Each structure stands twice: as structure tokens, then as C-alpha cells.
């Protein structure tokens, strides 16, 4: 019977710029061994780490007063925008290729007066964590770095993988067959996102537990050269929802108006010539 | 340390119209007890069930030749459409409020010559399964029915909850605080979708395992009157991506053209009056 277990790593302290995340996560795990010897990391374990502590260690804090500036810095383009009584919801594409509100810049679980940007390069952060933890514990394990994203057509948010290392992020079933040998319609199962959500069920937002261990899915742990979470970003050519509906509508409206203006201009200059 | 375990229930036979899903799932679980006595269902367990076997038991099979007709039947509106060398990708809103390709009608893991529609009312199906299994085993448990959905900006698919009963589907953190008492930015964690993804990691598409048990998250199990997965569908007023970008662009373009036509007509009739 396929089976796996997920637990939260307690005892990770508040993280600050320059902190050694490998050492602090390792210390928290080692401190828990007295109570639970099973918590010692094993071959095939997957560590799922909230991006917030990665950002904190990497010094991605900005003063809250510079939050808007930081959002602009991390925004590649605005995808959709809506004004409502509580303010403006701005869905943007970040420089990581993520589509999310406010470029992922957040003030919850961050010391007073500060806002926190996403890690500079979450796949690189995952790689550093993964190789550091592999070396420290002498076991082959995978690392996923998560953040919390909304979805366009469903309420609320779920955690997804924004960084990954040493792990197979997708199960590519294209061309595969089902249990009875018939072709599969589903193409690519995104394991890394399912793992991120699975870990969130023990991490949560209000619990202060930033790391979870997943044990029993060692078949997904692989070399450090495997594609990271950046590979989960859909390419522009496949993106059927590149803009919000209101934004795309306006672009179409303006294009038609511009064509009309051009045509009118042409007719006018034609008439001027005739006159 | 918060902890939970997920395992797949093997031995569920191929399901056909009219089959008693409660009895067949119960039999598969009971058959596994000899090998693993821990597999007996307990208070607080959550059963995650692939919608495919629910549809099969409910007789949602259609001949493959009627696949297109079934897609039309189950489509409320077309959200986005794209023609590509392999055919047409049509993202639609189903009568369940789900936004997905081909209205969820699928031929993989379905007997030859048949396609399978989604369950008529997945929340009702979940309720029937949940109350049936609670009665059968005399324990309080939750049920989630899953399907596999794509996402607009990320590659591939993940499993989400399309039906739920006896379970808290969201953790509504609005107005809540973090571990340090500061307001949380994240509003609603969608536990049911995270559970669906967590279960997919042992169910998979190619393994023929349609049911998983999640143990250790009993705090999420609740009364049978809790909101189902239908409550996870975002309302029209909050939907910033109601149409594909190309579709919205075209609507805007056509609206500007129509306005122009009206104006020209007005001017023409004005001139006719003057003449």
C-alpha cells in the first residue's frame, strides 16, 4: 500500500538576515530527536520550506514604507487590476514568472515595520538548502520552497512550489497509459505543487511552523540537476489568460478605436487631396 | 508535532453503473486489514475519492461517439478556446461551476468505447458516501471527491476537491493573526484542495488506486451540514478572468465597432432628416 507521512518541524527560531538556514533547520530537527527518534532525516525525505524564512535569511526585508516601491521592483507586468472599497487588487507577473497579488510582498509573519519580498531566485535557494542539508545529514533528500497563491476561479489560496531542488517536480504522463493500458488524457501531474499543499496542512499560516518533512515519497527524490520550480511556469505562448478580462477587453476596444481613427485620418487626407 | 499519514486503498474493483460504492470501498478496506490492522477506519479519518469511480457508479458513462454532445450538455459557457495543431483546447465552465477543459469529460481509466461525465452533483455524492461510510464503520469521517484540473499560469494539472462532506473545506483566516499577533495577509486557505493534492500523491493517474485515506487531520472533520466544494467556486463578481484574453479582446473590439456603427447610423439618419 503506497503510504507517506507529513509532519511539521517545530522549534525553528525567528530568522533574520544572514542566518544560516541549513544550521537552524538542522538544529530544530536534532532538538526534536529526544522526543521522536523517527524525526532523524532519512534517504528520500522531502523538506518543504515556507519561502518566508528563506527570504528572511536572504535579507529580503524592506521597510513597510517602501512596500509599493518593492512591488514595482518585483513586477514584470500588471496582469489584472481591480479597484474595490478595500483598496486595489493588482495581480501581477513577478520576475520569477509567478502570477500573484502584490508580487508576493507580504507583512504577515514579518517583524513590525517590515515587509518581505520573495527570495531572489527560489530555485537557487532550494539548491543551496538541499545540498547543505544533504551534506549535513549524509542522506539524499529533496527540498521544496513554497508560497501561497490565489487562483482565478476558485476562492482562497493554496501553497505551491516556487523553488525546488533534488526532486522530480512533475510526473509527465504524456503518451502514458492507465492501469488498463488505455491512453491517459491527463498530461502532467504537478507533484511539487501537490507536495507544497500537503505540507501546508501541517505548517499552516497561523502556527509558526515554517518547515515540514514528507517521508515515504522517496521515489521523487533525484539529482541536484533536476529542473526546478521555474519549469512550472507556463510559457507565454500557452497562456490563454495573459490579461484580466477587463484589461483584454479594453485593449480590444482601444485597438478598434485606433483602427477607426486611422481610417478616418486616411479618408480626411484623401478628401483634403481631392479638395 | 503536527503529523498526518496518507495511504492508498488498493483492491477497489472496476466500478460499473449502479454499484454500491460504500460497500465496495468498505470491502476493499476490510480486505486490507489482515495485512495492515491500522487500516481500519478511525474517528477523524478523511477519505479522498477520485470522481471517476463516483461517476461510474452513478452511470455517467456515455458512448465515445457522443462525447462532443456530452461536453455541450455539461457546458454552461465557453471561457476560452484555442485551435492548435493537435485540435481545439476549449476551457469551459461546467454546470458545477468548475472551469476546465472539455467539461471534465474523459476517456482515460474508462472502458473502451465509453467516455465519462463528472458526477451530477459531487457534493451530494460526497454526502451519500460520507453518511454511508460513517454508518458502516461507526466512526466520524470526512469525504472529498476529486478531479484533476489545469491552471492558467502554471503547467500541468493538480487534483482539487469537486465534492466534499463532513469536512471543513477552508480555513478562513480573515481577521486572524500570525504566530506573533500580527494581521495575516492570506485570507482563506483551501484545505480541501490541499487534501485533494495530498491524496493524489498516493493515488496517481496510472496506478489504478481511486481512494486514499488521510489520518491525523481529524480537526477538519465536522458535521454533515458543512458547506461542500461548491462553496469553493469563485463568484462571478470576483472573477477577474471570466474570459480568455483573446475572447475578452474580441468582445472589446466588437463593442467599439458596434458603437461606431451606431454613431454612423445616427449621423446618416441625421443627414437623411436634414436632406
UniProtKB/TrEMBL annotation, chains A, B:
Gene3D superfamilies: CofE-like, CofE-like domain. Keywords: GTP-binding, Ligase, Magnesium, Manganese, Metal-binding, Nucleotide-binding, Potassium. It holds the Pfam family F420_ligase. The gene is cofE. InterPro entries: F420-0_g-glutamyl_ligase (IPR008225), F420-0_gamma-glut_ligase-dom (IPR002847). GO terms for molecular function: coenzyme F420-0:L-glutamate ligase activity; GTP binding; metal ion binding. It is an enzyme of class 6 (ligase). This is Coenzyme F420-0:L-glutamate ligase. Its EC number is 6.3.2.31. Residues 12-216 form the Coenzyme F420:L-glutamate ligase-like domain. It comes from the Bacteria.
Amino acid at each position: 500500500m503506497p503510504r507517506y507521512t507529513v509532519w511539521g518541524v517545530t522549534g525553528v527560531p525567528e530568522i533574520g538576515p544572514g542566518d544560516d538556514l541549513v544550521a537552524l533547520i538542522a538544529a530544530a530537527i536534532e532538538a526534536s530527536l529526544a522526543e521522536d527518534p523517527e524525526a532523524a532525516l532519512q534517504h528520500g525525505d522531502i523538506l518543504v520550506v515556507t519561502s518566508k524564512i528563506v527570504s528572511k535569511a536572504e535579507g529580503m526585508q524592506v521597510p513597510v514604507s517602501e512596500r509599493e516601491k518593492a512591488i514595482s521592483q518585483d513586477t514584470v507586468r500588471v496582469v489584472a487590476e481591480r479597484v474595490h472599497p478595500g483598496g486595489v487588487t493588482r495581480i501581477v507577473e513577478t520576475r520569477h514568472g509567478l502570477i500573484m497579488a502584490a508580487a508576493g510582498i507580504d507583512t504577515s509573519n514579518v517583524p513590525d515595520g517590515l515587509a518581505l519580498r520573495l527570495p531572489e531566485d527560489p530555485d537557487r535557494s532550494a539548491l543551496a538548502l538541499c545540498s547543505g542539508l544533504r551534506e549535513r545529514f549524509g542522506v539524499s533528500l529533496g527540498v521544496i520552497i513554497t508560497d501561497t497563491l490565489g487562483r482565478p476561479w476558485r476562492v482562497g489560496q493554496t501553497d505551491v512550489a516556487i523553488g525546488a531542488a533534488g526532486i522530480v517536480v512533475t510526473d509527465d504522463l504524456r503518451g502514458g497509459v492507465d492501469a488498463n493500458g488505455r491512453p491517459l488524457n491527463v498530461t502532467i501531474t504537478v507533484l511539487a505543487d501537490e507536495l507544497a499543499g500537503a505540507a501546508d496542512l501541517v505548517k499552516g499560516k497561523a502556527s509558526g511552523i515554517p518547515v515540514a518533512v514528507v517521508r515515504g515519497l522517496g521515489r521523487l527524490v533525484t539529482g541536484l540537476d533536476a529542473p526546478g520550480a521555474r519549469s512550472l511556469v507556463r510559457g507565454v505562448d500557452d497562456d490563454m489568460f495573459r490579461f484580466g478580462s477587463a484589461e483584454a477587453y479594453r485593449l480590444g476596444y482601444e485597438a478598434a478605436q485606433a483602427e477607426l481613427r486611422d481610417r478616418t485620418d486616411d479618408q480626411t487626407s484623401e478628401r483634403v487631396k481631392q479638395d
